[in-house]
Every structure is written in C-alpha cells, then in structure tokens.
Amino acid sequence: MNRLLYTFPLIFLALGLATAAHADLEDGLAAFESQDYETALTEFTEDAEKGVALAQYNLGLMYHSALGTEQDFERAMQLLALSAQQGVAKAQYLLGSMYDKGQGTAQDYVEAYRWYEMAANQGDADAQYAVGTMNFYGQGKAENYPLAVEWYEKAANQGHRDSQYNLGVMHGNGFGTPNDMDEAHRWFLAAGEAGSADAQFNLGIMYQDGVGTMADPVQSVRWFMRAAEQGMAQAQARTGIAYASGQGVAQDYVRAREWFMRAAEQGDVPAQSFLGRLYMSGLGMDEQDLVSAYMWYKIANSNGDRDAANVIATLRGYMDAEQIATAERQAVTWVGRHR
Questions:
Q1: Could you say which of 68, 217, 267, 327 is the most buried, measured as most Cβ atoms within 10 Å of its Cβ?
Q2: Cα–Cα distance between 186 and 170 in angstroms, integer?
Q3: pTM above 0.70, yes or no
Q4: Secondary structure of the chain: what % helix, strand, coil (to 5)?
Q5: Tens digit of each residue's pLDDT (9 = 90 or more) over 303-329
Q6: What is the CA radius of gyration of the chain?
Q7: How far apart are CA 7 and CA 192, in angstroms?
Q8: Which of 280-283's residues contact partners 24+ apart within 8 Å by CB, and which partners?
Q9: How does DSSP classify residue 118?
Q10: Are 171 and 187 in contact (CB under 8 A)?
Q11: Are 41 and 68 in contact, with CB atoms under 8 Å apart?
C-alpha cells in the first residue's frame, strides 16, 4: 500500500454534561444547558462541597475548560480526583488526560495509564482508545502492540472513530496482529464513514490499487474527494489527478485545476507541479500561460521537486526576459506569503 497514516489525536471529553443522577444536580445542569455558566458554577460548587461525584466532575470540567471561570488546571485536577475516586468514568478519563499532558501537574504516564485503565475497564471508549495508544507507544508501561489492538477493538466496537482508524493501520502493517488488508479495509471503511479524513484517504488508495478490496476507480475518487472536502491537501491533489486523467470521473481539466490549486496553496508539491503542467499545456483554459507555469514549477522546485528545474530551463527558452522576471517575482512573493 502506498501510504498508511498513523496519528493519535488525543480526544478531549465533549462538554455534554452527564444526566443528573442526583436531584441536587438539576439546577446546575439547567443553568449550564442555558449557558448561564456563572449560575452553573455556583450550583455545582455547592453540590461538589456536599460530595456529589457528578457535581465534582462537572465543576472540574468547567475549571478545565474555562467556562464561567478562569482556567485552573490545579483546581480542576483536585475536583476530578475526588470524582474519579468515587468511580465516575469520565472523571477518571479526564484525570488521566491531565497526567498525560502535564496539566496541573508534572507529566506522569504511569499515573495517566492508571486512570485511563480504570475508565477503560468501565467501558469508556475514549479511555480504551487512550490505553491502546499508550500500549502502542510504550507510555506508562512497556510497548505492547497486541494489547493495543485489544483495547482499540473494544473502543472501535463502540463506534470510536479514531480507534477504528488505528485498527486499520495495525492490520495493514501487521502491528500486534497478522497483516490483513481485508481487515484494514473493513476498519478504514468504518472510520471513513464516521468522517476520518485519514481513513478516507487510505480508502482512496486501496480502491485505486485494489488492495484489501477490488480496484474501483469510482470508489477511489469518491473517497479521495471526501477527504479533500475536509481540507486534506494530498487528497485534493489525488482528486485533481483523477479529473485530469479521467479515472473514476469524467475528464475535466477545469476541475482538476481547482483541486490542484487548493492543494498547492497548502504546500502540496506534486499539486504545484501539476498546476505548472496544466498552465504550460493550456489544458482547461483558452491558451497557455507560461508565466503561471514557470511560477508554479519554480515554487515546486523551491519545495524540493528537482525535476521541476529541467522544466524551468525548457520554459526559459520560450519566454522573454520580462515574462521570466514576472514569473520569478510572483514565485518569490508566493513563497514569502506562505512561509
């Protein structure tokens, strides 16, 4: 497979507060839901002082996220610890996250792992994902790929998108499990349908190359485009290539140029070279634009495309001094603006 990504964005707890399990929470929850954070803070403080675990968690979350008060990680950690010790899984997860990131305390992977594992054993999908991640990297305990797979599977089976994506990577690379591209495809598909741009990009590659599934250029473009629409430069470039070549979609040089432009503006070097090629050939436009072609090849060359230097040398033979100077100036301006 041409490309498999591995990213581990740490998932923060969404701020949809838990349903009241105690009558004392109702006023605080009602105030929070109406975005009256000042009142919510007061109500949760009163309830937290009574030892109500969910109030301690909610109040800790407010201090953590600076809602109705200044951000105070130390105070957040104190409150979350009280809630976590009473068994609130989300408090255990967020407390683990704070130890993981060194928020309100020195970074401590061992403590992070301990709290994540407590929440994970209660079925919290975010915590299961975090335990899988720490096993993958060997944080808080020795590296253990098979155990990472086990925890990712638990979270993925609950619909956790990033765990689904990482399972695709694990199966695709044989990390902690036999290499199985069919399984990789299955998990990328789940994550891609849930909106993971990285999974969508990998699905585009798999359908393009017939890896883990039958080759299908229409499906390939569909997945590249979904990732492209989320702003992934490499997917935008692949979508441009599909339109330029007519693979999986009707050939359309105008749309190809649009997608290449989006990717090029984000610094994608192949897209910059493809733009140069389109402007040099005049495809999808009324006529050639050698100045723009030179500019994009110059930009690609400055970003490491060595082959672009040969094209620039050829272009110079067809351009006058003023055109070359204009193209050079435009390239310098673009690079300066995107530095």
A1: 327
A2: 12
A3: yes
A4: 70, 0, 30
A5: 999 999 999 999 999 999 999 999 999
A6: 26
A7: 14
A8: 280/311, 280/315, 283/244, 283/253
A9: H
A10: yes
A11: yes
